[in-house]
Amino acid sequence: MPYNAKTDWKFDEIVTEHDMNRLEQGIKDAHTEGIDSPEPTTLNLKYGTQVVQSDRIAPYNVMGFNGRTLVNLMGRDGNFETYLTLVGSGAAAAYDTSNKNHGNQSMKIVATGTGVIEHYVDITKQYNLPNVNGYYIACASIKPVAGKACIRFYDGSSQIGFDTGIAATSIASDPNKFTTTWVRFGVSNVSSVIARMHLLKSDGSNFFVQSGESAYFDGISIYEISAADYTAIDSMTVEQIAAKYPYVDDMKPIVNPYVMKYGENLLPPFAEGWFVTAGSGNPRMTINLLYSASLVADGNSQAIAIDIPIAPNQDYTLSVATGRIGVNTLDKNGELINAFGGYSSAPKSFKTDANAAILRVLLSNDTSGAGTYTFTNPMLNLGNTAKLFKPSEDNYLLFPNQWCSNIDSSVADQLYRSGADYYKLAKHKYLTLDGSQNWSTSTSKTGYKYVVLGMPNSSDYTNSIAVKFDGKIIPLGDPNTGADVQNTSFGKFFISISNLDSGWGDGYEPSQAEVQAYFYGWRMFNYDSSNGSSLYTTGTKGWCYREDSTQLGNAAGYIGGQNTLPYSQAPNGNNFKWTPYKLQYQLAQPVLEKIIPEGDITLHEGLNQIEVGDGMIVREKATPSFYSNTGEWLLNNLAFPSSLFKNRVGKLFELYRDDVIDKSLKKLDWDINRYGNFSFAIDRPNYDPSASYTVTYLALDRYSLTCNIQAMQGRYVTNLKTNVDMLTRNQANIIKRVSELENTKAKKIQPQLIVPTLLNGWSLHRGGYYKDDFGIVHVDMGITGGVAAEGTIIMQFPKGYAPADDILTDIFASTQGNVIASTIVDGKIAITSRKIYLYKGANGYMHLLFSFRAEQ
After folding, report:
1. Measured between alpha carbons, how far is 781 from 815 in angstroms, rounded to an integer?
2. For every residue of 36-73, which 3-state class applies, written as one string?
C-alpha cells in the first residue's frame, strides 16, 4: 500500500501502536522494494486472447514452450477446395462459395427422396489409420440451414465395422454460424475409415422424410491422439476442443509463434484498419489527425468502425471526446451477439459474452442524418471505468521458426531461455521436398519406383511423416511393397512413387535430373504421342504439368508439354496448384540452435490484454506495383499479381523500407482486389523506387501454414529492485551482443566460394560464386567446352542465390582456350527461373563476371 508519512510530530505527542505499525510497515515496504529481490511472478499464457493483471510496468519474459505437429489424416480433402468423389444416400452434394469457414468453399448437403430413410453423403476415399488399435478424434465445422447435422466415421473396408453412433457425436444445430462438432473413437484392428456427412431431423432423429433439411460442412479433420488425451476430452468444452484440435491442411507444425500485448488503449489510429459502414448510402471517412477523423454522412445509421479482438466474459469501456459511440460483440465467425443498447455520447461500459471474440467499435451519426461528424480521441480500455485518453502502444514478441513434435506430442521441440538468450532444442526436422534436393534412384518395380534422399542425423523408420503433393498422408512401411510408402532408415529417406504420378514406365530408370523435375511438379510422358497421361519408356522424352485435379489420369488433365528437361518449379494449372511434398523426421540426436526473437513485451500497470498465436510472416519481400489511375504504388492487390504477398493477409504489423519502419502505408480493407483482409497503397511522394520493401503480417489462412501453439510459460517481476537488476543485466547483454557483432563484422572473412554443377558439357576452368552479407551474389568463373547453341542451360542456382528478376548481361567469350585478340567474340547470357541460359558465346572459353541482389 502507499506509505503516508506523518511529518508534523509534536514534542509531547503520544506514539500509538497504530503509528508504530505504520512506521514498521513503511520500513518493510521500502526494504522489499529496494533491497530484497524476490523471484519473478509466473505468468503462463494460453492460446488466444486473454486478460492478465500486472501490479506495475514490467518486462514480460517468455521462458519456454513446446513444439507441436498436427497430422490431419484426411490430408486436404476436408477443406473441400479440390474435387472429391462423393456418394450420397437420400442426399445431394454441391460445392458452395457463399458459406465457408475455411478457404474458398464448403460442401452443401441437401436431403432428397420421399422415404423414411437416412440422409447422408460419404467421401468415398479411405483414410489410413497409422495405429490400427489407437485413439482418434475427428472434428468438423457445420452450419445447418434446416434441421441438424453431424459427422460419422465407418470402417473403410466394409463401411460397417464400427459405428460411432449419434450419441457419441456432437451435433450442430445453430443455423446462424459454423459450429465445431467432434467425435472421438478408439479402434481395434481397423486400418482405415471413410467420412460421412450426416443430416438429422430437427428433433435429432436420423430416419425421416426430407423436408428441406440441409447443412454446410467444412474443415473436416481426423487426428490420432494419446489415450490420456482421449480421456481428457470428457472434461473439455467445445471451445477448448476447437482450440486444441483446429482444422489444418495435411501436416502442420507450429510456425512463427508470437505474443501480442495490446496497449491501455486498444484502439489504433484512424489510419490503421478503420472502415466505413452503412445500411444504405455512400458515406466517406476523412482522417484529420492520428486520432481525429470525420464521417461525411449522407443518411442515418452510418459509422466509422473497426473490429478488435477481445476476451470473453470481460469488462470493457469505450469513450470518445466528441461524437456518438456504439459497440457490437461478434463471435469468432463474425456473427452478431450483442449490440448493448445502441448509441450514446457518454462512455459505454459493458461485459462481453462467453462466446465473444470480436468487438466492433462504431463511431456514428446515429439518426442525425446527412452532415460531417468529427470524432476525436476514441479510447477503449479494460475495466468498467473510462480512462483518460492515451495513444495505442501495442508490442509483440515473435519466435521465428518451425516447432515440431511427434504425433502424440511426447517428443517435441522446445524453446527455453538462458539469461537473455533463447535457444531451440530441435528434436525434429521439417522439410519441403522439391527438385533442389540431391535425389538418387533405386531399382524399378512393377507400377512404381522408389527414390532415396540422404537424411543426416535421422532416427530410423517409425518417426517420419510425409505428405504427398495432393495432401495425402503417406504411410510408413517398406517402399518395396508398393506406391506411396515411405520411411527413414540407415540415414536415408525412402519414398515410392507410382508410374501414373511420375510418368516413368516400367523398366525405365529416370536420371537424377528427371527425379528432380518430378519433385518440381513435372510429369514425364511420351512426347511423340502428344498424350500427357502416357507413360514413357522409349521415344522422345516429354514433360508436362497438371491442369485439373478432376481430370488427372486423362489426357485432358495435363498441359504445358515440352521436350526440354525442366529445372524449375512447374506453373500452376487452371484448376491445380502444385504443392511440394513435405517431410518431418525425428533426429537421432537433438540439436541446440540459438533463436533470435523479434520484439519485446512490456506489461503496463493494471489489466493487460494479451494474444498468443502463430502464423506470423516476418520480413517477407514486398514488390509495389504502380497504378497510373490513382498515382499510387499498390501492394497485395489481385489486379497486380507481382504485388501479392505469399499468403492472404489477416493483419499487417509493419512495412519496412530498407529495414526501417515505414508508416506511409495505407490499408485498403474495402478494396475488392485485396488478397485477404487488406490491400495496401503508398502515395507516389512517399515511394522510394531504390528502396527494398519488406512486410511483417499475420496470415489469414493459418490452417494452411501452422497448427495452434497450446501454451507459453513466462514470468514478470513485481519488485522495483528486481526490475532495475533485470534492466541492468539486459543492458549488459545488449552491450555484449553489439561488441560481438562489431568484432565479428570487423574480422569477417570472404564467404566460401561455391563450385557450381555445370550442365550440357560445360566444365569449370576456375572460380565459382558466393553471396555476401548484404545478399549480393558475386559470380566470377571461367568455363570451357560445352554446347554453345542459343538457349543452352549452363547451370542452375540453388534457392536463395538466384536474382529476384530476370537478368540479361554481356560476358567475355573466346573461340579458343588460349585467348588472343582474334579469338574473342561477343557473349551474352540470361538468368531466368534460377537458370543461366547462353544467348551468344563460344565453347573455347567464357568468363562470367557479374553480380546481383539475390531473391529473398
Report:
1. 17
2. CCCCCEECCEECEEEEEEECCCEEEEEEEEECCEEECC
Of the CA atoms within 13 Å of residue 675, those in its CB half-sphere come to 19
Neighbours of 670 (CB within 10 A): 10
Predicted structure pTM score? 0.80
Beta strands in 556-644 (DSSP E): 558-562, 581-595, 598-599, 601-603, 606-613, 616-622, 625-627, 632-635
384 three-state secondary structure: coil
- The answer to whether residues 601 and 715 touch, using CB atoms and an 8 Å cutoff, is no
C-alpha closest to that of 131 among 191, 69, 70: 191
Residues 595-648 have pLDDT tens digits of: 989 888 999 999 999 999 999 998 898 999 999 998 999 999 999 999 999 999
Q: What percent of the chain has pLDDT over 90?
A: 50
For residue 454, the one-letter residue type is G
pLDDT band for 92, please (50, 70, 90 cuts): very high
Three-class secondary structure of residue 448 per DSSP: strand
The 3-class SS string of 486-520 reads EEEECCEEEEEEEHHHHCECCCCCCCHHHHHHHHC
Q: What is the pLDDT of residue 854?
A: 86
pLDDT score at 727? 58
pLDDT tens profile 116-160:
999 999 998 989 999 989 999 999 999 999 999 999 988 855 543
Measured in residues, the chain has a length of 856
CA 105 to chain centre: 19
Burial (CB < 10 A; 0-12, 13-18, 19+), residue 282, is exposed
Which residue in 674, 686, 681, 692 sits closest to 629, CA to CA? 681
